[in-house]
Amino acid sequence: MFWFNFLVANFIFFWFLLFFLVFSFNFVRIFSLFFFSLFFLSSLIFILLTNKSIFFFQSIFKFYSLFFFKISYVLALDAISILLVILSSFILFFCFLSYWYLRYKIKLYSFFLFFSLWLLFNVFSVIDFFFFYIFFEGIVIPMFFIIGIWGSRSRKIYASYQFFVYTLLGSIFILLCFLNIFSYNGSSSFEFYLNSFFFESRQFFFWLFMFFGFAIKIPMMPTHIWLPEAHVEAPTPGSVILAAILLKLGSYAMLRLIIIPLVTVYTDLIFMIYVLAFVGFIYSSMVAFSQIDIKKTIAYSSIAHMNFSIFGLFSQHLLGFFGVIIMMLGHAITSGALFLGIGILYDRYKTRIILYYGSLATFMPIFFNSVFYFSIIKLWFSGYY
């Protein structure tokens, strides 16, 4: 785990050297491909190095500690983190391949992808509130530039700012909650938080603020408005990263910080959570059926998918938790594949209106069958079957 983080950080440093010293398009492209392949293969080694019988954190490595503030940069992995780290490296590897022939700011594009990979690895492995918050909110920065620079239409600047403002609103509530936990425990470690006793009023404060902040990331109703706009205006790799990884950050944070530590609080509010999830699931499904833009259809179906996963997340049952993890992985693969397919069509025909693709199966049968099978799998993972 240390060497994986070390490799990603070193690539970011080498990228700055390439930016000033190397101007060859082919060299930068091959150099980036080599490192993306290396990181993806390195992440697979985590499966061999971890004990499958241990569900809690293992492979713990402490980089350094600030003893005055009781803040420690500690990395650890468990069964959920390993799957999400492998998923992140796999998705970002294919995002780079999808823009293989990109000639517009290729070095900046590869840097933002590697910066996103480094941030995601730390989000899924760090076990300190201070660093978790930095990396959790820091992923907004590369996505803001990816949407704003390589977006496909004129509203890309508006979509990038809308994405930034909505996530910033949720981050304020999360920050207030983390500061309260730090002042109460005197430490920002997950271990202190999981083993601390809080009064019921303070637990409700923690739950309310963290739930609202993480619900924007999922997104749940009525904080879902930023997602369709960001999906439509983002380039194909940006849409894939949003659907496959960024939507999982909210569910992962809820599972890590709300479900287990604050179980006594949300049992009284579980009916309200189910109502919000059910309304979001039905509403986004109906809106998805009424869209003529294929990208918006997939975007609203992703909202329905993630709202449906809330039922398993707050089911208070181990099978529900495992079902949420399977739905997260299934949604990442299927939605990422569908957005890649729509990106292929848009690059060739410069339109995403579904009415223009009525006879797609006639002249692109292999592509049509691939999209059809991924759509069926997405329906199955989304709970429609």
Give an overview of the whole structure.
There is one protein chain. The chain is mainly α and 385 residues long. The protein has a domain at 1-127. Helix content is 75%, strand content 4%. It contains 17 helices and two strands. It has helices spanning 2-21, 25-49, 79-98, 106-125, 129-138, 140-150, 156-185, 190-194, 200-217, 226-233, 236-259, 263-266, 270-289, 294-313, 318-349, 360-363, 365-382; strands at residues 58-66, 71-77. It has a two-stranded antiparallel sheet. Strand 1 and strand 2 form a beta hairpin. Helix 7 packs across helix 10 (226-233). The longest helix has 32 residues, at 318-349. The two termini are 39 Å apart.
Largest sheet: 2 strands, antiparallel
End-to-end gap = 39 Å
| Coarse structural class | mainly alpha
Instruction: Give the SSE string.
Output: HHEEHHHHHHHHHHHHHHH
Q: What portion of residues is helical?
A: over 70%
Q: Please count the beta strands (DSSP E, at least 2 residues each).
A: 2
| Percent in strands | under 5%
Give me the Rg, rounded.
21 Å
| Overall pLDDT level | 80
- CA-based shape: globular
Q: What is the spatial order of strands in the main beta sheet?
A: 1-2
DSSP helical segment count: 17
* Low-pLDDT segments, ≥5 res: none
Question: Would you spell out the secondary-structure blueprint of this structure?
Answer:
Elements lengths: L1 H20 L3 H25 L8 E9 L4 E7 L1 H20 L7 H20 L3 H10 L1 H11 L5 H30 L4 H5 L5 H18 L8 H8 L2 H24 L3 H4 L3 H20 L4 H20 L4 H32 L10 H4 L1 H18 L3
Antiparallel strand pairs: 1-2
